[in-house]
Amino acid sequence: MSDEQLMAVVTRNKEAISGDVAIFHAADEQEQAKIATTLAKVLKAMVHDIGNGVYIIVKH
Amino acid sequence: MDEFAITISLGSLMGVMARAYMLRSDYRQYPGYPHGYVTHLSLGFIASALGSVAIPAIVAKEYAAVTFLALAAEQFRNIRNMERESLSALEEAELVPRGHDYIEGIARVFEARNYLVMVTALITSTVYYLFRWPLASIFVGFVSILMTSFLMRGKILSDLAEVRVGKISFEGPLLKVGNIDIMNVGLPQMREKILSDALGVEIHPKDDNARSTLHNMGQRQAIAHVATSILGTKKDVDTPEFTPMVRKDIDTGAIALYCVPAEKDIESLLFAVRKVPILESAYRKPLKTKAGRMAAD
């Protein structure tokens, strides 16, 4: 059941995230939502809001 | 006409009628392909012939023939495998799968129905052989059809739990139905869409037996599947946000269903959820044990 996979990260907060994952930087919330939507559609995955300006794209 | 011939044909007739009657009550479990009906009616015919042949075989001292019943039981076990395999194969194409527990339940029902057919045929033919009165045996056959379908009816969700409307709301990105957390939805426009289109239902268990039944993930998946198959869903492969979900309140054991139906009709959803069958494999009865009753108070 649990084959969740972290596909990508979209962030407005450069300090909050680093590591071996696809990271997309956005200038504002609108751009962030737009990138996240495109990624979610392409990857057939879901966008979750971590709360500190970071969206993660997770395949469930 | 030969007495045995009448006995066997009356038994077979009532058996086939029993199988046809049970096909009718299938609407939620069976895909309803005409070929499926043919398969099940012909297997039902075989079962009823076997059931009605038992008494004449014993009377004619053909004991070997009776052992064929045992062989037949083995055959009907294959029906369970057949149903399980075909439903599991179809499962891959379902956006909202039935879940293994539901499939297992359906497969078991299809196996059991053939035994019920055999019993009906056996009862009918026995009554005819004893009293030699066709109308009486047909009457008894009908009674046994009604009895078996009454006994095999199974429970539905409204027997175990109270089903109410649940309010969809967001706490930041967290989607909630009533007080129960469902999931984290990141995109603001998805949250708006969910607020305008989604429906929520709260299911409150009536006692501890119900609580541990609703705890079962297979049962919860069955609820989500039934809700989707009746009301449709807006979910597609690229919108996992709209996946119907059933989550539990960890403190009270209540569960909440979230779904984004194609038809937004809360009354229809409540009705469908109340009618969800309780899966045999999910049904638990902790209150039957002393320890369970001690924990309950």
Q: Classify the helix fraction of chain A into a percent range.
A: 25-40%
**Strand percentage of chain B:** 5-15%
Report the count of strand segments of chain A.
Answer: 4
The DSSP helix count of chain B reads 11
General shape of chain B? elongated
Taking all Cα atoms into account, the compactness measure Rg of chain B is: 24 Å
Main β sheet profile of chain B: 4 strands, antiparallel
Q: What form of chain A results from the Cα inertia axes?
A: globular
Low-confidence sequence ranges of chain A: none
What is the radius of gyration of chain A?
A: 11 Å
Number of individual domains of chain B:
2
User: What does the average pLDDT of chain A come to?
Assistant: 90
Q: What does this entry look like structurally?
A:
The complex is a heterodimer of chains A (60) and B (297). Chain A has one helix at 29-43, and strands spanning 5-11, 22-25, 46-49, 54-59. Chain A is α+β, with helices and mostly antiparallel strands. Chain A has one domain (5-59). The N and C termini of chain A lie close together (9 Å). Chain B has 297 residues and is an alpha+beta fold. Chain B has eleven helices and seven strands. The interface between A and B is medium-sized, with 16 and 14 residues.
